Automatic annotation (TrEMBL):
The gene is AZIN2. This is Antizyme inhibitor 2. It is found in: Cell projection, Axon; Cell projection, Dendrite; Cytoplasm, Perinuclear region; Cytoplasmic granule. InterPro entries: Ala_racemase/Decarboxylase_C (IPR009006), De-COase2_CS (IPR022657), De-COase2_N (IPR022644), Orn/DAP/Arg_de-COase (IPR000183), Orn_de-COase (IPR002433), PLP-binding_barrel (IPR029066). GO terms for cellular component: axon; cytoplasmic vesicle; dendrite; endoplasmic reticulum-Golgi intermediate compartment; Golgi apparatus; membrane; nucleus; perikaryon. Its cofactor is pyridoxal 5'-phosphate. SUPFAM superfamilies: Alanine racemase C-terminal domain-like, PLP-binding barrel. Monomer. Interacts with OAZ1, OAZ2 and OAZ3; this interaction disrupts the interaction between the antizyme and ODC1. Does not form a heterodimer with ODC1. PROSITE patterns: ODR_DC_2_2. GO terms for biological process: negative regulation of protein catabolic process; positive regulation of polyamine transmembrane transport; putrescine biosynthetic process from arginine, via ornithine. Gene3D superfamilies: Alanine racemase, Lyase, Ornithine Decarboxylase, Chain A, domain 1. Residues 22-224 form the Orn/DAP/Arg decarboxylase 2 N-terminal domain. Catalyzes the first and rate-limiting step of polyamine biosynthesis that converts ornithine into putrescine, which is the precursor for the polyamines, spermidine and spermine. Polyamines are essential for cell proliferation and are implicated in cellular processes, ranging from DNA replication to apoptosis.
Length: 402
């Protein structure tokens, strides 16, 4: 076996050492090495007092990490989660996550997260008996919620929970509105519509001066349209839509063209899987109006029947090596690709207008570095144009995302 295996490929154990013993050793090491988003946030200088660990389902190792690094605000939505925090982070201050009416949303998060209104008093009482202070309420309406009034109802429910908490002696002063806000043009419900409903509800239930801090998770709003994705066609084939021998009115058998891309739903197109989106591509060069359109579908590289990016498209005849462009590829694309694959497989080019760069440079670069500013990074782009060069050498290899 020389050249194939070495002793370093294995964890060596002594006779009598069981699989259970090995698992206990490995899981202990894994929990001690856990890194979280909290670490990333603190690394860029955000103080622990400004961090809320909003996920209502946490690993014990992550709770201990929060305790060790001074993160005090944690969310919960059930007795077991509260007990975990009481044991591993007894000085924590809790935010109660309540369920929402997301029956019209694309994803029904309330099946997974959030306490029902009828169980909140019991949870608040449980926290009081455990000497844990509940300081606020949170909720999260999933992206794609078509009814802005769902936010108003959730805010009204939060007011009820605040009153429950006050009756039990909790000093509550935080309301977290969650996220999922639309960040692209043409959304079914515009951000301005949602904001108007939220502001009206806040004026009614949490008016200015009531001493409640209002938080929101605006990740999707900021990044939904952050990227334009370019992927190449790596293979194609024609597939019969009907059984052989059956012809359409023109006398030919109906066909569709299947295009295989170098990215799929387990990577940069995870939004298809997660949010049931149907990405529509554009071509780098506008096709001639004389070119016929063909029934087409786009598939990712995975060897399974689920990796379908889009079906029912009508595209001109394309070829292996051609590129397709997808706009508004921010949320649940690049970040999810790195989670599933372990490392990003795309090449990223960032672009910023020179006007924006000049406006930000004094804040981004310390005054003493102004003399060397041009050598640090010199953006070459204008507006939304794509640059051909980077101020930092490329780290990632193609798909590519721009």
């Amino acid at each position: 076996m020389a050249g194939y295996l070495s002793e370093t490929d294995f964890v060596m154990v002594e006779e009598g050492f069981s699989t259970r013993d090995l698992l206990e050793e490995l899981t202990l090491g894994a929990s001690q090495a856990t890194t979280t988003e909290m670490e990333l946030v603190q690394r860029i200088g955000v103080p622990a007092s400004k961090i809320i660990y909003a996920h209502p389902c946490k690993q014990i190792a992550q709770i201990k990490y929060a305790a060790k690094h001074g993160v005090q605000l944690l969310s919960f939505d059930n007795e077991m989660e509260l007990a975990k925090v009481v044991k591993s982070h007894p000085s924590a201050k809790m935010v109660l996550c309540i369920a929402t009416d997301d029956s019209h949303s694309l994803s029904h998060l309330s099946l997974k997260f959030g306490a029902l209104l009828k169980s909140c008093r019991h949870l608040l009482q449980n926290a009081k008996e455990s000497h844990v202070e509940v300081v606020g309420v949170s909720f999260h309406l999933c992206s794609g919620c078509p009814d802005p009034q769902a936010y108003a109802q959730s805010i009204a429910d939060a007011r009820v929970v605040f009153e429950m908490g006050a009756q039990l002696g909790h000093r509550m002063h935080i309301l977290d509105l969650g996220g999922g806000f639309p960040g692209v043009e043409g959304a079914k419900v515009r951000f301005e519509e949602i904001a108007s409903v939220i502001n009206s509800a806040l004026d009614l239930y949490f008016p200015e001066g009531c001493g409640v801090d209002i938080l929101a998770q605006l990740g999707r709003y900021y990044v939904s349209s952050a990227f334009t994705l370019a992927v190449s066609i790596i293979a194609k084939k024609e597939v019969l839509l009907e059984q052989p021998g059956r012809e359409d009115e023109t006398g030919s058998v109906p066909k569709t063209i299947v295009y295989h891309l170098d990215e799929g739903i387990y990577g940069l197109f995870n939004s298809v899987l997660f949010e049931n989106t149907c990405p529509t591509p554009t071509l780098p060069k506008k096709p001639s109006t004389e070119q016929p359109l063909h029934s087409s579908s786009l598939w990712g590289p995975a060897l399974d029947g689920c990796d379908c990016v889009a079906e029912g498209l009508w595209l001109p005849q394309l070829h292996v090596g051609d590129w397709l462009v997808f706009e508004n590829m921010g949320a649940y694309t690049v970040g999810m690709s790195s989670l599933f694959g372990g490392a990003r497989t795309c090449h990223i080019t960032y672009a910023m207008s020179r006007v924006a760069w000049e406006a930000l440079r004094e804040q981004l670069l310390p005054a003493e570095q102004d003399g060397d500013a041009e050598g640090v990074c010199k953006p070459l782009s204008c507006g939304w144009e794509i640059t051909d060069t980077l101020c930092v050498a490329p780290v990632f290899t193609p798909a590519s995302i721009m």
